[in-house]
# Entry
Amino acid sequence: MSDSRPLPAPVAVVTGAGRGIGRAIALALAGAGADVVLAGRDLSTLEATAEAAATAGVATLCVRTDVTSEEDVAVLGRVSYERFGVVDAVVANSGIGGPSGPLWELDRKAWDETFAVNVTGVFLSARAFLPAMLARRRGSIVVVGSMTGKRPLWGRTPYAASKLALVGLVRTLALETAPSGVRVNLLSPGPVEGERMDWVFRAQAEGRGIPVEEARAEMVAQIPIGRLVEPPEVANAVVSLTLGELSAVTGVDLNVSGGMVMY
# Structure
């Protein structure tokens, strides 16, 4: 006699889930049937994302988290397991743009902060959830990087260096965890419509002495599909890597850049 009870919903943790790509990822995972844990520094934006995600009929949990804080991330892991029992996927999306300008004009504090969020935050987030995933012999971690880690962009050395560091982190971690059935992949978005890219265009324009419209047009001209990437397009790729049937895919660096980066 077959067991007709419904399978439990998968559980996904998303850092930086309050706005932009993180919000889109959380909503896409909820739309795919996953219960979602929403982490980030701004509780009000997390709650707004949770309200939107709940319309899909899934459970949500908001946890105020600074991913540079070892204590905060440990609490995130603990309360996630206390609430749901298991975590199937972690999307390490939290990141900052960092300073913009020539390297020799940048402040050391801003450089350190960029690496603290973009690299150390990923380390802490993965470490908080991996022991239980490894013990369970299943799980998926997706790290959100950037095409800028592989393709130069004026004035973006701290950001580019931090995002390229994630390539090595993900490939090595994927090798270490593969024998235990845990998959680790990197997703590298190209220029994505939203507040972050608007800021990049303004910084580019100011630093190079050109109009904002020219900075944007230069970027779009280099994208084979002829437009910026939309946040849901990044989110859909995350769903495929976490909840899709990609059981043999690990250590991959997936570009979602409209063809701007093809390596």
